[in-house]
Design goal:
Number of strands: 2
CATH architecture: Orthogonal Bundle
Shape: globular
Radius of gyration: 17 Å
Largest sheet: 2 strands, antiparallel
Order of helices and strands: HEEHHHHHH
Distance between the termini: 23 Å
Strand order of the largest sheet: 1-2
Number of helices: 7
CATH class: Mainly Alpha
Helix content: over 70%
Structural class: mainly alpha
Number of domains: 1
Length: about 190
Amino acid sequence: MNDTKEVMKKTPIDLVYMALGAVLITICSWISIPTTVPFTMQTFAVFFVLLTLGGKRGTVAILVYVLLGAVGVPVFAQFSSGIGILLGNTGGYIVGFIFMGLAYWMIIGLLGKKIWAEILALVIGLVVCYSFGTAWFMFVYAQANGAVGIATVLAWCVIPFVIPDLIKLGLAVTLARRLSPVLKLQ
């Protein structure tokens, strides 16, 4: 009986945390860093949300973010939204964030919340996201333009983002570690 009361007490707070996680991902998706291949801070936010909220709440926050964008709330990069974005060439990378969260949740569940396990889980989650997004890109691109090779898609959609994403991962780990005592979310 006490376990049920404890769960009920945490639920509203969990909802607030998950909503704030979705908001953080949204704000970071609007921040564009102009380089040869422009990128957003969206991946940083996904890493940070998973690290601070944990696998379960973090994955739900990512899912809320994706669903908000799917129904038309302009949460994606460049204030875009809609199911068309998710069904477009690069939509698989956005949906891949959900799989990143699931991978993180599973790995942390198996290995525990140690720094090396968190980094490993985020790196594996990023590979899962890249894999899903690349497969989706190849499928959608082939429907519209004809077949394209895996090396070409990796050169377009993954390789330019690996180093920036690893830098964002390092930044997210550092910030989450420093803010963890203050946030007290776990």
